[in-house]
Structures are given as C-alpha cells and as structure tokens.
C-alpha cells in the first residue's frame, strides 16, 4: 500500500509549535555536539558558558567566568561585535594564541521588540583537519594578501634620491638646487621637460627629502589610463558607480596618498572636466568618490609633470588657466640632454655602472663619448641608457668604441642638412611634415593624443594630416 502524501498544510498550521520545537532541538543538539557554548549579555559580559569551553580557557569552574567581559575569558572573541551591531557571524575561524584554531558561529539574541539583549556563540570544531582544504585556502589567501600588501608598500616608497639625478654641469646643478628647495616646502611642484629628462627621478627625490618621506608616494600616469577610468582612478568609486571592465569599488590615488605625495605624470593629458575637480581638491583638500555621498578629506602634496607645452595648452583652452597657476608655484625645468652634453661622461659612467651587475664591467672610450655629444638625443637620458645597453649586448669590447654606438643611433635625427636637391617646395614640405608627424608619434609611443599635444595641434587635425599623408600609427 502506498503511504498517504504528507499533508504539509496541516503540519504548518501549527507552524509556531514546530518552530519552538525545532529551536529547542537545535539548541540541545548544538550544545551536545559542539566544542563550546557561551552566552553574553548586552554588555558582552558572560552570563553562561559550558564547563568544557570554560576549561579550554583555563577556568576549571565555569561559575568563575560568569560576569566577566567575554575577552577576559576568550581572548580573541568577537562576541562584542555581534552585540554591538546585531549581525550574526555564521562562520568564522577564531585563532587563539598557542591553541588550536576554532570554527565558530555567533548569533545575536533579540527580545520581542527586536532589541539586541546579548549573543550566543558556538565553537563548532577544534579539529580543523576535517576542514583542512578550507583552512589551507584561508591561510594561503592570508599569505597572499600579506605579500601583496608588502609589495604595494614597497611600490609606494621612493625609488630615487637626489644622488640618482646624475649631472654636475651648470644646468643639472641648478635643477637639483631648485628641487632641494622644493623638498623643503609643501606647495605643488610642476616639472616641465622633454621625455626622459629625469622628471620622475626628481619627483621621487623631492618626496624622499621632504617631511612627507615616511608617508606614501603614489604615482599616476594620466596618459596610461583611459579617459573613462581616470576619475575613478584619481578619486575612487563605490561599486557599480562607473562603467568599465571592472565594476568593483576602488580606492582612489588621492586617498592612498593621504599624508604623502601624489605624482601626476603627463599632467597635460588630464581632461578638462577632471581639471576642475582636481582644482577643487587642491583648494579644499576634499573630494567625493564617484557614486559616493560622502566627502573624503585628504592631505596630499601634488608633484605634476608634463612633457607637453602646458602654457600653450592654457592659451588654446585645452588646460584650465586657474589650475595651471595653482600648479605653477614651484616650477622646475629639466633640460634636454643635448643642452647639457657636459654631463655625458658622468651619465655614461653611471649607466654602465648600473648595468655592471647584469652585463659585466664595461667602460666607454673618450672618442665614443665625444661622438655621443653630436647626437640630438630626442629621447634624452632614457635613450642614452637604451643605446648603451644595446651596445653592451652587441659588442665584446670591454671599452665601448664609436663603431659600437654608431649603428644604434638613429641617423635620421642627427643634425644633417636637408636633402632637398631634387624636390620642389610642395613635395619637400610634405616630406618634412610626414617625418615630423612620424617622429612625434614614435616618441609619444604611438599615442596620437600625446603627439598632437606636443606638436601643439588638435587631435582631429593630427588624424586628418595622418590620413592625407598615409601615415599609420
Ligand atoms: N639626470 C639623470 N640622472 C640619471 N638618470 C636619469 C636622469 N634623467 C633621467 N634618467 C634616467 O632616464 C630614464 C627616464 O627618466 P624619467 O622617467 O625620470 O624621465 P621623465 O622625464 O619622467 O620621462 P617621461 O616624460 O617620458 O615620463 C630613467 O631610467 C632614469 O633613471
């Protein structure tokens, strides 16, 4: 005979009785099987603890634990948190010094009006072996978090000091003098200079020698972040506040740099809308993250750098004049390498010394240094490093010679007479324009916006010219 189907409706008619019975039964089972039970009042004082649990914490008589603040008996207890916030902690791992870890559940106890009157805690396991995969994952995540935090802290420390800025000629000495003065002050610093002239080196050195040295140095390259993500990157965002690949909330660079220095590289790339937000932060020292209704205060010193002609951008309306004046307090211009060739011997020596560890000890002949003086160095010290590094890789000479360097230097940028003999004016101008745009794009790493900015023309104009001249990026 098939059994009659269960009459759920009839059962649930007495739902309250079932619930009472289930609560009682669950409580008895938990008490019997778990490693320990504790109940605290609304001030997180113990009102009840079972004998086994009390004994684990050194209280032979559970009565002697009654009335004590819970942490006095169970040192790592989070019961106070549950009482305070009224939220259950369904599963947690409690690590007690010198003891096995415990898996615990903590639940708030509420009266009929919903008021929290205490909390009950169950220690479910002290033999964590049965949970070893979860615990192993938990420990691994904790280790990963610790190492990520450590490398983040490292990344926020300055990499360079004033000694890293090589050069003792007049121009380099003046740059270092101004930068040392800037380190003594707290106003914004504006670093102007071609690419590869050491603006980032100086920004690090200024921070390292300033009163903020113990606090983070956070860097952001405006040209490297898509415009749509820049606001969240700078000011932070609550989850889902912006549409990007990542819709999670994020802490902005301003908040990360609190108390320290924020190095904003390629400042000229900051879109106009964000320029006004940045200006407000500089004036009021506070800002609102994207999608948040709260205002955050941040005490941050700005060091801005750009290789674009910022003053020209102000004139053309691409950069706000008020922000420019706000930033243009302590301005330092890093000279291009071709204007300080007197520093070439020292720079070569420093670069070769830096590479000695990985590439072996190498020197450079006086004739080779002399040869380097005549080059235009559009990529400045960065390009010098690159040329020397490649020369070392390709040559076996312990002392680099002219013939090791000559093939590595872009002869197109040497100051040679223009080959215009067979060309009419129109085609010579076209050839010149093509080379100018190609060089600008190359030195801007293919970024049309940056190339246009450096040339002082609009992005749309650049694209039009590129199409007309058949230039691909
Ligand atoms: N005066 C200097 N002394 C020693 N190394 C330098 C100097 N200037 C630049 N360098 C080296 O050249 C490279 C580029 O320097 P840095 O990044 O500071 O230039 P930058 O002006 O910030 O360039 P960009 O505008 O492209 O960001 C780095 O490897 C740096 O160590």
From TrEMBL:
Gene3D superfamilies: 1.10.8.60, Homeodomain-like, P-loop containing nucleotide triphosphate hydrolases, PAS domain. Pfam families: AAA_lid_14 (PF25601), HTH_8 (PF02954), PAS_4 (PF08448), Sigma54_activat (PF00158). InterPro entries: AAA+_ATPase (IPR003593), AAA_lid_NorR (IPR058031), Homeodomain-like_sf (IPR009057), HTH_Fis (IPR002197), P-loop_NTPase (IPR027417), PAS (IPR000014), PAS-like_dom_sf (IPR035965), PAS_4 (IPR013656). GO terms for biological process: regulation of DNA-templated transcription. Keywords: ATP-binding, DNA-binding, Nucleotide-binding, Transcription, Transcription regulation. One of its GO terms (molecular function) is sequence-specific DNA binding. The keyword Transcription regulation applies. PROSITE patterns: SIGMA54_INTERACT_1 (PS00675), SIGMA54_INTERACT_2 (PS00676), SIGMA54_INTERACT_3 (PS00688), SIGMA54_INTERACT_4 (PS50045). Transmembrane segments: none annotated. This is Transcriptional regulator with PAS, ATPase and Fis domain. It comes from Silvimonas terrae. Residues 165-393 form the Sigma-54 factor interaction domain.
């Amino acid at each position: 005979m098939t059994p009659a189907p269960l009459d759920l409706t009839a059962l649930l008619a007495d739902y309250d009785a079932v619930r009472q019975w289930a609560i009682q039964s669950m409580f008895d089972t938990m008490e019997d099987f778990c490693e320990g039970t504790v109940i605290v009042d609304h001030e997180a004082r113990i009102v009840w603890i079972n004998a086994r649990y009390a004994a684990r914490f050194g209280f032979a008589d559970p009565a002697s634990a009654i009335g004590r603040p819970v942490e006095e008996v169970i040192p790592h207890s989070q019961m106070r948190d549950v009482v305070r916030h009224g939220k259950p902690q369904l599963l947690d791992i409690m690590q007690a010094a010198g003891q096995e870890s415990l898996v615990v559940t903590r639940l708030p106890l509420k009266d009929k009006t919903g008021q929290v009157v205490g909390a009950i805690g169950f220690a479910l396991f002290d033999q964590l072996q049965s949970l070893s995969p979860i615990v192993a994952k938990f420990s691994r995540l904790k280790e990963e978090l610790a190492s990520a935090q450590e490398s983040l802290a490292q990344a926020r420390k300055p990499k360079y000091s004033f000694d890293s800025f090589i050069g003792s000629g007049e121009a380099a000495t003046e740059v270092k003098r101004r930068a040392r003065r800037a380190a003594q002050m707290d106003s914004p610093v504006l670093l102007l200079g071609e690419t590869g002239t050491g603006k980032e080196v100086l920004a690090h050195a200024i921070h390292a020698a300033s009163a903020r040295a113990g606090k983070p140095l956070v860097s952001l390259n405006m040209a490297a972040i898509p415009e749509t993500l820049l606001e969240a990157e700078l000011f932070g965002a609550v989850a889902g506040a912006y549409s990007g690949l990542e819709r999670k909330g994020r802490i902005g660079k301003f908040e990360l740099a609190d108390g320290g220095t924020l190095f904003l590289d390629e400042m000229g790339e900051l879109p106009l809308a964000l320029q006004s937000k940045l200006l407000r932060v500089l004036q009021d020292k506070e800002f609102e993250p994207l999608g948040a209704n709260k205002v955050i205060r941040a005490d941050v010193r700005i060091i801005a750098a750009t290789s674009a002609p910022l003053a020209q951008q102000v004139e053309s309306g691409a950069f706000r004049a008020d922000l420019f004046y706000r930033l243009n307090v302590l301005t330092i211009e890093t000279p291009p390498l071709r204007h300080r060739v007197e520093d070439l011997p020292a720079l070569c020596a420093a670069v070769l010394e830096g590479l000695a560890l990985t590439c072996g000890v190498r020197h450079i002949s006086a004739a080779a240094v002399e040869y380097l003086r005549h080059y235009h160095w559009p990529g400045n010290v960065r390009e010098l490093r690159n040329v020397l590094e490649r020369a070392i890789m390709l040559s076996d000479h312990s002392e680099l010679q002219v013939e090791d360097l000559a093939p590595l230097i872009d002869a197109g940028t040497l100051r040679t007479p223009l080959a215009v003999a067979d060309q009419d004016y129109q085609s010579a101008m076209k050839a010149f324009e093509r080379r100018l745009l190609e060089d600008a794009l190359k030195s801007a790493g293919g970024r049309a916006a940056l190339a246009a900015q450096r040339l002082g023309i609009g992005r749309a104009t650049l694209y039009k010219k590129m199409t007309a001249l058949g230039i691909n990026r």
